[in-house]
Structures are given as structure tokens and as C-alpha cells.
Amino acid sequence: MYGNEREVLERLAQWLRDGHRAVLLTVLSTFGGSPRPPGSLAAIREDGVIWGSVSGGCVEDDLVAEMREGKLLAESGRVVVRTFGADADEQARYRLPCDNTLRVAIESGFDPALLDRVIGALKDHRVLRRSVRFDDGRGELSDSGAGPVFFEDAYSFSHLIGPRYRALLIGATELARYLANILPSLGFAVSVCDPRPEYADSWDLPDIPLSRGMPDDQVLAMGCDARSVVLAVSHDLKLDDMALMEALRTPGFYVGALGSMRTTEKRKARLAEFDLTPEQIERLHGPVGLPIGSRTPAEIAVSVAADLVAARRSLEKDVG
Fold first, then answer.
1. What is the model's pLDDT at position 134?
2. Rg of the Cα atoms in the chain
3. Which of 137, 158, 11, 13 has its CA nearest to residue 73?
């Protein structure tokens, strides 16, 4: 499993290779509550087949109908901008919540080479900035992930595309396998570390890189920043603690370990024997995950993923 961006763009590229005509939709702005933030993508084929979402279902039916009638395909290649919910009547028609407005860019001219570059970067877990001009639909790519997630002026719009967050999982366990399937769809570039051959040899997710080095070395090599996550899920105290001792010194926004409350208190006591400050130790999330009564590895993975989303939203709110 991987993120919505890659799914939409791969599907669009395949349609174009098969000789279909299609449009790419990008959310430009929203006013009021919206299920899809600026930069969200969807693609519609000439026969109305849609992949992705720009509103959670409020405006897609109208766009599909217009696509079937050929109204969304701009011959000039220019970007068409549509506004939905401009007044109360439109909000009611599109089932948009009160006072909500949605603006969407519609692209119909594509550079196949540029599209392939974006897809290649997504496969390599790299972040790109995609810029598109309104007047002629010309697109540009840059390798810098700096700047705002989304930007628009009178001439163009640009947005970051690709996983802006990283998650290192310590232990190639069953739980790690579920997390490695869920987290990429949430915008995390995931990697796994496990020096134990009995676990590493059975890792069979080719899109998720596996390191057989020691966990502390892998944390250092990762260069954790404020968008990084380290999760210790190996069930091996030595391996987990080695990773946590290094990770808690980093700016990583979420450092956590699997285990009960009692296990977590014992872990914190062990960490206090090393040169970690009380403040660093208190940054440890444990037990990881939201308290949803999860028991199976799949349920625990869902609770952990939900907790990461909540922590990320808090981080994004704090930085504006």
C-alpha cells in the first residue's frame, strides 16, 4: 500500500499510455471544513472512471458527468479553475457543509516525461515540488522539499508531493509488517531495522527497505529531524533500548515503544541509567497507540497509526 498521490498519478499515466484522455484535479483552496486539503489529487478518465477524491464525494458526481460530456477537456492545455459552494444554493446542491467553498484546478495537458519523473520520485520515497502555470498548464519539478506545502498566486500553483515524514521501525515483526502497509498511505516513508536473521530473512515487503545493522547505528544514520518517527516494536529489550537511547536525543516528533504501562516504567528506569535527561525520557511514548482496546497486531497497528496522525496534526498546528 502507498499514498494517494502515487495511486492517482500511476493510474493517470496508465490511462494516457492506453490512449485515453483524462484530467487531473488538484484542490487549490478550501473555506470552512473540508475532508481534503489543498494539494489533494484525483483523476477522471474520459468515460467517467475516477481515481482519488477532491471533496470526499460532494462534487465528484458533477465532475464525472461533465467529463463524460467532454466539458472538462481544455484543448489549449490551460488550467481550468472551478469553484464549488460560492453561495448557499450551491452549498446545498453539492451537499457541502454550511459556508464551505472548494476551488479545484483541472489539468488536461500533460508532459509524459514529467509525469514519469514524479512517479519515479514517489517510488524512491523522495519529495518533489510540483509547479503548474495557469495560462498554459506547463509544469515544472524541483527536488527541494523546502517551503510551504501548498502555494498559489495569480499565475501558478505549487505543492509538495511525496512522503514528507519518515518512520523507522525497529524489528521486522508482524506488527512492523502491518505498520509498513499502513503508514505509507498516510504520507510516511517507512524503513525497518532488524539485525536478527530469523526476522530479517523473512521480510518480504520489497517497497520497504530493511537494514540489518544495529538499531542505534541506524537511528544515527537516519538523521532524525522534526518530521521523524522511531518506533521500537522488536520485543527485544536490548534492541529496542539501543534505538530509544539515540532517538530520544533527536528532534523526532514521536519516539515510542511497544509494551504495557509496567513495561514502559521499567524501560524508563533503564534509560535513566544512561546519559539521558529526565525531559528526554519523558518524551517516550509508551505504550504506543491510542487506547482503543486493541489486541491483535493489526488492531495495534491501527491504534499506533491513529496516534501518529494525531501527533502529526498537533505538530503541524504548532508550526502553523
1. 93
2. 22
3. 137
Residues 298-319: tens digit of each pLDDT: 999 999 999 999 999 888 775 5
Domains with residue ranges and CATH for the chain: 4-161 (no CATH), 165-318 (3.40.50.720)
- Rounded average pLDDT over 192-202: 97
d(CA 154, CA 234): 51
Task: Report d(CA 224, CA 227) in Å as an integer.
Answer: 8
For residue 184, give the DSSP letter.
G
Residue 222 falls in which region: left (phi positive, over 0), alpha (psi -120 to 50) or beta: alpha
DSSP H helices in 34-163: 60-68, 88-93, 112-123
3-state secondary structure 195-235: CCHHHHCCCCCCCCCEECCCHHHHHHHHCCCCCEEEEECCC
Q: What is the pLDDT of residues 93-125, one digit of tens each?
A: 555 554 577 889 999 988 888 999 999 988 888
Q: Alpha-carbon distance 62 to 37, whole Å?
A: 20
Paired sense of beta strands 165-170 and 188-193, if any: parallel
